[in-house]
Amino acid sequence: GKPYMVAIAATPGSGKSVSSFMLASILEDHGYPTMVCPHDGYHFPLDYLRTFPDADDMVYRRGAPDTFDPFALLRDLDRIRNGDEEIIKLPAFDHAKADPEPDTHIFDRNHHKIVLCEGLYLLHDQDGWEEVKYMFDYTIFMN
Predict the structure, then answer these.
(1) Are 131 and 77 in contact (CB under 8 A)?
(2) Which residue from 73, 76, 78, 82 is spatially nearest to 122, judged by alpha carbons?
């Protein structure tokens, strides 16, 4: 079936990741298998940013809304929400490499009942992010 999709959005350093994993643990303890999907895995790789005409600026501003791939995130959220694939592998952000790492987070349709997606721009209304917010059944904004 369809998992219950939750967006956890907030500013940098506000505790999104820690809060997401704490909430997932509580939900798991109450019998709701939960997957946490950080949107950091959808950063454009540095090699790709360096192909832009304003490459130095794009690399310098990495982390801004237009330095992510919201269309890939939207595609993967749609696969989770509306698809029928049993297993969906999602990217993570490898801080040691300073780049995304593919196939790190795994959604299992036969196991996960709730998906917590956490990130800065899940509610952003520009730069290709406009449709992402519609993938969620519930939204939490931390301030």
Answers:
(1) no
(2) 73
Q: What is the pTM of this model?
A: 0.95
3 state SS of 65 = helix
Rounded CA-CA distance 54/21 in Å is 36
| Span between the terminal Cα atoms of the chain, in Å | 32
pLDDT one-digit tens code per residue, 76-125: 999 999 999 999 999 999 999 999 999 999 999 999 999 999 999 999 99
Tell me if residue 132 falls in helix, strand or coil.
Answer: helix
Distance CA(87)–CA(72), nearest Å, equals 17
Give every CB contact of residue 104 below 8 A, 6+ residues apart in sequence. Answer: 41, 89, 90, 91, 92
Give the single-character DSSP code of 68.
B
Would you state the structure tokens that stand for residue 133, as one six-digit string?
């917010």
Residues in a beta bridge with 92: 101
The pLDDT-based confidence of 143 (bands split at 50, 70, 90) is confident
The single-letter DSSP state of residue 126 is S
